[in-house]
UniProtKB/TrEMBL annotation:
One function term, GO molecular function aspect: hydrolase activity
Superkingdom of the organism of origin: Bacteria
Protein name (database record): Metallophosphoesterase
Domain Calcineurin-like phosphoesterase: 83-267
Annotated region described as Disordered, given as residue ranges: 1-24
PANTHER family, per the entry: METALLOPHOSPHOESTERASE, CALCINEURIN SUPERFAMILY (PTHR43143), SERINE_THREONINE-PROTEIN PHOSPHATASE CPPED1 (PTHR43143:SF1)
SUPFAM superfamilies xref list: Metallo-dependent phosphatases
Organism: Pseudomonas urmiensis
A Pfam entry, by short name: Metallophos
Length: 331
């Protein structure tokens, strides 16, 4: 086999195993979702708005939200407080949208933030050449490959294409807490290609699978270790597979998941009671959106056996309302 024929396989991430093995248990977590640039309150109501006004207002709202999150982290001790953003990073994954969003996040959050993909990132925008979905997925991989403990993704590269497979789900250990990100929803699958035919351009092929098989291994490890388990995803309902939804519900009950955090429903921030078929009796919390100026903070007590979940409205963490005092599972 020549060098031109040889294929290279990598399993992502991390590049440097063990880099994050000694994280402490943080005092708090921040759960946000749906910055969805350039989305606005008018977008939520399907009202007319000029593109210039929409773009300006959306950027302002995102700046306000993440500046407030940064202020909260400063109050709680600094950037060791993790921030999780549960999907719909931009409205359609276009390059001009991503170029506005990510500098805002990096300016306010620095290194310690994480995100998942939502329907606006890689479900609604598989179109001609699939560039928006491709770049949204590559953003996820590139941002997290040196930050997380494990990600369900592999890549095989040859001269003609790179083939990615897996669910894109990932997990991190923060002392007593295992934080897991499942992206759009754990039964979602997607297959597509992007790029022109060889030899004009290197192609990308994606076979995104559901995450339940990978998730069960994560939950077993966390359960056996006596960890607090916090799951994250984008869509709390309208999943692709009802059968797999039932499997997920049974799985998280069996392994005593403590809470699920989600986004997607911009105007329904708080504890979600309307449709709990996916999670059963496990508490599910919605973080709202940048367009609605809402997000969640979750604070551990000193013994890490209770979690106070608080809803921030108007991007003002100082007036956050406690919506739940959650007793955590302890083996």
């Amino acid at each position: 086999m020549t060098d031109l024929d040889r294929r290279f396989e990598t399993v992502l991430p991390p590049k440097r195993p063990g880099r994050h093995g000694n994280r402490a248990t943080p005092r708090a977590f921040v759960f946000a979702s749906d910055p969805q640039y350039p989305w606005t309150p008018a977008s939520d109501l399907n009202l007319e708005q000029s593109a210039a006004d929409r773009d300006q207002e959306s950027a302002q709202l995102i700046n306000q939200q993440y500046a407030n999150i940064a202020d909260y982290r400063t109050h709680m001790g600094g950037t060791a407080i993790p921030v999780m953003i549960n999907g719909d990073m931009t409205a359609y994954g276009h390059g001009w949208q991503r170029k506005v969003l990510y500098p805002i996040l990096e300016r306010h959050l620095q290194d310690n933030y994480y995100f998942g993909l939502g329907n606006h990132d890689y479900e609604n925008n598989t179109t001609f050449n699939n560039g928006a979905a491709r770049d949204s997925i590559l953003d996820l991989i590139d941002h997290h490959r040196e930050r997380v403990d494990t990600m369900d993704i592999s890549a095989i590269t040859d001269l003609q294409q790179t083939h990615y497979s897996g669910s894109l789900a990932y997990s991190m250990n923060f002392g007593r807490v295992r934080l897991i990100q499942l992206n759009n929803e754990p039964t979602y699958e997607l297959g597509f290609q992007s790029g022109w035919a060889w030899p004009l351009e290197h192609r990308h092929r994606f076979d995104i699978s559901g995450s339940l098989q990978w998730l069960e291994g994560q939950l077993q490890e966390a359960y056996d270790s006596g960890q607090i388990i916090l799951l994250n995803l984008h869509k709390p309902n309208e999943w692709a597979s009802q059968e797999e939804r039932n499997r997920f519900r049974a799985m998280i009950a069996h392994y005593r998941v403590d809470a699920v955090f989600a986004g997607h429903l911009h105007r329904e921030a708080g504890r979600f009671y309307r449709d709990t078929r996916a999670v059963g009796s496990i508490p599910l919390y919605l973080s709202g959106s940048a367009s609605q100026s809402t997000y969640l903070v979750a604070e551990l007590n000193d013994s890490a056996d209770s979690l106070s979940v608080r809803l921030v409205r108007g991007n003002d963490w100082r007036s956050a309302e406690e919506i739940d005092q959650l007793q955590l599972y302890k083996p």
